[in-house]
């Protein structure tokens, strides 16, 4: 496939990512404006690089004609939460939306990956409007806590550095760190109500000052 063709394939995915980032960030803003705690803390998104798509197609033996059906994470959205409890709330918010249709879910929180990776994944369908009409796009939404994100980011860069062959002694350290992340998330959950109250109060103060 030449560059122009890749560009045409990936453009609607870029649109889907940009639209969903705006929509999820708007959700955060709405919560704040109503003096409510937002279960989403931060939103990021990306379109998979061509080399990463090609690597996945090769690894999973995916034919070019099946690319858009079988590579489900060409478009990716990441929703970062403060607490583990927020993840269920965010998942519920997504399931209720009329502009998103859930195709499948993977719970790597109850079932941590062997690497120590934890996150909640949803594959969803999302419609975009292009000059050629409506297109149904698959998007992978990853939902995780800030602590899970910290671990995954570090581990991902080590995978990159070691070309997915992380030495055993480092893997062991990462596994220990993954256990520490579970403890940290559990510990933070015990003070969740206190923190939520504090954040709502400070948000109300901010809104009041903005109204003056
Ligand atoms: P990117 O864009 O660099 O994040 P796959 O893992 O791709 O063979 P599958 O079934 O398509 O298989 O996807 P899966 O495992 O549900 O989710 C894949 C994505 O989840 C990965 O994307 C990562 O973002 C994340 N992920 C899954 N396992 C791990 C892990 O052990 N460590 C880290 N850091 N992230 C993980 P990609 O493909 O790596 O691409």
TrEMBL record:
<comment type="pathway">
    <text>Purine metabolism; ppGpp biosynthesis; ppGpp from GTP: step 1/2.</text>
</comment>
<keyword id="KW-0808">Transferase</keyword>
<protein>
    <submittedName>
        <fullName>GTP pyrophosphokinase family protein</fullName>
    </submittedName>
</protein>
<dbReference type="GO" id="GO:0015970">
    <property type="term" value="P:guanosine tetraphosphate biosynthetic process"/>
</dbReference>
<dbReference type="GO" id="GO:0016301">
    <property type="term" value="F:kinase activity"/>
</dbReference>
<keyword id="KW-0418">Kinase</keyword>
<feature type="domain" description="RelA/SpoT">
    <location>
        <begin position="45"/>
        <end position="166"/>
    </location>
</feature>
């Amino acid at each position: 496939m030449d560059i122009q063709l890749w560009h045409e394939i990936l453009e609607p995915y870029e649109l889907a990512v940009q639209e969903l980032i705006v929509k999820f960030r708007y959700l955060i803003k709405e919560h704040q404006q109503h003096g409510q705690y937002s279960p989403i803390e931060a939103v990021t998104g990306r379109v998979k690089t061509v080399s990463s798509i090609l690597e996945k197609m090769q690894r999973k033996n995916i034919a070019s004609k099946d690319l858009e059906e079988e590579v489900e994470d060409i478009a990716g959205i990441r929703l970062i939460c403060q607490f583990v409890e927020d993840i269920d709330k965010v998942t519920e918010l997504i399931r209720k939306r009329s502009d998103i249709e859930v195709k499948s879910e993977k719970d790597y929180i109850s079932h941590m990956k062997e690497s120590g990776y934890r996150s909640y994944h949803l594959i969803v369908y999302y419609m975009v409007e292009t000059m050629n009409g409506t297109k149904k796009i698959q998007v992978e939404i990853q939902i995780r806590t800030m602590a899970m994100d910290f671990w995954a980011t570090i581990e991902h860069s080590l995978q990159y550095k070691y070309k997915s062959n992380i030495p055993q002694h480092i893997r062991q350290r990462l596994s220990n760190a993954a256990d520490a992340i579970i403890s940290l998330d559990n510990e933070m959950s015990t003070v969740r109500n206190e923190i939520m109250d504090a954040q709502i109060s400070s948000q109300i103060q901010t809104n009041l000052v903005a109204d003056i």
